[in-house]
Amino acid sequence: MSGTPPDEERARRREVLRKAGVYLVTEESLSVGRRSEEIAEAALAAGVRVVQVREKDGTARRALEIALALRRMTRRFGALLIVNDRIDIALAADADGVHLGQEDIPMAAARRQLGEAALIGLSITAAGQLAAPDAALADCLGVGSIFATSSKSDATLTGLALLGAARAAGGGRVPIVAIGGITVGNAGRAVLAGADVVAVIGAITAASDPGRAAKSLLEEVRVARARATR
User: Fold this and answer.
1) CA–CA separation, 123 vs 140, rounded Å?
2) How many domains does the chain have?
């Protein structure tokens, strides 16, 4: 936001993410012949407020095309745009941040390139990673694969317990994002186990009606949050 100090803007983005409930991750190869722009627009119209561009099976050129289109859409809906791994694409699309894996560049190096306003998320696949310096620098922790998933062939199955460990390690400072095998049938379990947000690919991208699928997921998260606060 113009005129807002970078640290305040990053805090604002972090709270948008924390409250979002559902976090769409794009993957055109898992979208049943549809373009990622179509899927994202339906999800945003349904109420999703965070979209990550993760086009592992496509070209960098196509990923940038998607990111640029989604940047326009997310601004229209007041939503966040995150890019998976690719700092160059995040910069070119003026994204709100990136999400990095354990094998990507260190958090401090990413911060130097992206600036203080950017959100930088980090994948957590084992409890030992929570004590590493990068975890302390992250703006959100993406935990999983919580359930079995076909979206990532080399995913490490963590189960639900790691969500609680991540929440305890973060001390409530950063949003906890559950990812991996999330569906409308198990999203509530992830929230009750400690997630603030559930990230999904196929549960929306492969749905016959992506907008309706997004609404159902948002409702499941809402109900689980209400149960968690009782």
Assistant:
1) 9
2) 1
